[in-house]
Write a structure and sequence with these properties.
Layout lengths: L6 H15 L12 E8 L5 E8 L9 E5 L1 H7 L5 H7 L6 E5 L2 E3 L6 H11 L5 H5 L1
Parallel strand pairs: 1-4
Antiparallel strand pairs: 1-2, 1-3, 4-5
Length: 132
């Protein structure tokens, strides 16, 4: 997972990664069908971004699909308004870091809740866990 401090950097990195995965085409010939994005808020309060482009609308990655078809191609081609993309982002989809490299949709309320969430998420599905 590559995170970037600016949306523009994240989109540029996603563009480069897409082109690297499609070695038989040039940037001018590239055709994308989906643009996906994810916003992260780190423990220190910094906002980070991750972006992905896909050739097929059915492809999935780590990010949430934001636009498809011509709109995705426009973002790939650099024909987008960063302010508009930020406005389209729904804050309830932002992932908040609660432990180093671990994210959840809600920001940690306090240390005790963070520890309780960690215990729940570390459920190893052992027989003792299933008896409760």
């Amino acid at each position: 997972m590559n995170l970037f401090s600016t949306l523009e950097e994240a989109i540029e990195a996603a563009r480069e990664e897409f082109l690297a995965s499609q070695s038989d085409i040039t940037a001018d010939d590239a055709s994308v069908s989906q643009f996906a994005l994810q916003k992260y808020v780190m423990q220190d309060g910094d906002t980070m971004w991750q972006a992905e482009f896909f050739a097929d609308e059915d492809d999935q990655g780590e990010c949430l699909p934001i636009c498809s078809g011509e709109a995705a191609q426009a973002v790939f081609d650099g024909d987008f308004d960063e302010v508009e993309l930020r406005q389209e982002w729904q804050s309830e989809n932002t992932l908040h870091e609660w432990d180093e490299g671990e994210f959840q949709l809600e920001p940690p309320r306090d240390l005790e809740e963070g520890e309780a969430a960690a215990e729940e998420w570390e459920d190893d599905d052992s027989p003792s866990d299933n008896w409760a």
